[in-house]
């Protein structure tokens, strides 16, 4: 385990739980240069904790794989050393700080025939796993990811900290190249962007709106998408899934608009409000022509499922559910969003307020 900070400790916990459950994995060691974190990890997990990867690799230990959970700026250096040493690597999102670094990691993994999996754990959210059979050419996405401010992960902006989860998921569902990006973002309580609103249009005609904030008064994790004859709502936090389908008796206007891919915002708002009980009568007794379905979602911890998926890829040598290429694609879109936000700041005369991104 590379990194024993806040998220590294979660990984350590999961690996130890899997070890105790007899799932064929042993937590061998950790790396963290901070003496306090190192001591805590040694005490809590009864493993040696080294100050550097060099010390770890020089020790007489049997190592098959490693997880990297350190600040993004160090992802490339840490993962590179591990891949060169012949280890399979799970690296927290984003896969790297730049596309050049991401490409180099992918090349190293290929050269050394190693597994490289980016840590997009929301892909393993049970609600996201359960929604896959519901996909029918989605044409409009709305993603909201809001958090209360904490002094954590401030080495990156809200796009790479929070929004990248939804970028990755929508990219996997839209399955189309990006055509255009519009984005606005502002730093509020930190030197980097804390709140952002983004609109992405795909070559297929699909459109996605993303809102991410780490300066909210509430915690929200939701994704909604609209496709021919159905509306799907995913609540990441509750691991909940709702599908509203149009039956044969639905009005011709609504059926024609959605079936043809011409998504009317007024119709979408009506259906979305229905999910929240905002349209009279729809929540308690659905209108004729609309069926409300709650697909079964088997509860589970996304991080545990992610680690289990990584270990399965290590054992079988099969491509992981979330590939390094997909991690690179999510990073590429995130960096394009950052550049678009910088351009908007200059047009709006916000140069003194908006600090350009270092990526």
UniProtKB/TrEMBL annotation:
Residue ranges occupied by any Gfo/Idh/MocA-like oxidoreductase N-terminal domain in the UniProt entry: 1-120
Short name of one Pfam family: GFO_IDH_MocA_C3
Every GFO/IDH/MocA-like oxidoreductase domain range: 148-219
Transmembrane segments: none
An example molecular function term from Gene Ontology annotations: nucleotide binding
InterPro entries: Gfo/Idh/MocA-like_OxRdtase_N, Gfo/Idh/MocA_Oxidoreductases, GFO_IDH_MocA-like_dom, NAD(P)-bd_dom_sf
Source species, domain of life: Bacteria
Protein's UniProt name: Gfo/Idh/MocA family oxidoreductase
């Amino acid at each position: 385990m590379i990194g024993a900070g806040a998220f590294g400790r979660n990984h350590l916990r999961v690996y130890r739980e899997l070890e105790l459950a007899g799932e064929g994995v042993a937590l061998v060691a950790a790396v963290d240069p901070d003496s306090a974190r190192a001591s805590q990890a040694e005490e809590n997990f009864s493993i040696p904790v080294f100050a550097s990867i060099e010390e770890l690799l020089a020790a007489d230990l049997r190592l098959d794989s490693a997880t990297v959970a350190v600040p993004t700026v160090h992802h490339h250096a840490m993962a590179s050393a591990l891949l060169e040493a012949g280890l399979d690597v799970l690296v927290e999102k984003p896969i790297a700080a730049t596309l050049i670094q991401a490409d180099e990691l992918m090349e190293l993994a290929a050269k050394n025939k190693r597994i490289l999996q980016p840590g997009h754990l929301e892909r393993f959210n049970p609600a996201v796993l359960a929604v896959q059979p519901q996909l029918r050419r989605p044409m409009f996405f709305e993603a909201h990811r809001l958090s209360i401010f904490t002094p954590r992960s401030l080495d990156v902006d809200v796009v790479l900290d929070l929004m990248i989860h939804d970028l990755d998921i929508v990219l996997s569902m839209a399955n189309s190249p990006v055509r255009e990006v519009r984005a606005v973002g502002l730093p509020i309580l930190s030197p980097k962007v804390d709140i952002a609103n983004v609109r992405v249009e795909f070559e297929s005609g699909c459109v996605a709106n993303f809102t991410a904030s780490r300066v909210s008064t509430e915690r929200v994790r939701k994704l909604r998408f609209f496709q021919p004859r159905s509306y799907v709502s995913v609540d990441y936090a509750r691991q909940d899934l709702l599908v509203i389908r149009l039956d044969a008796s639905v009005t011709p206007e609504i059926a024609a608009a959605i079936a043809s891919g011409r998504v009317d915002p007024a119709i979408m708002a009506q259906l979305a409000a229905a999910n929240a009980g905002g349209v009279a009568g729809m929540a308690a007794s659905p209108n004729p022509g609309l069926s409300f379905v709650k697909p079964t979602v088997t509860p589970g911890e996304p991080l545990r499922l992610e680690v289990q998926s990584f270990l399965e890829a290590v054992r079988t040598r099969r491509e992981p559910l979330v590939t390094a290429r997909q991690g690179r694609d999510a990073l590429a879109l995130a960096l394009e969003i950052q550049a678009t936000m910088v351009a908007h700041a200059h047009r709006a005369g916000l140069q003194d307020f908006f600090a350009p991104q270092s990526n």
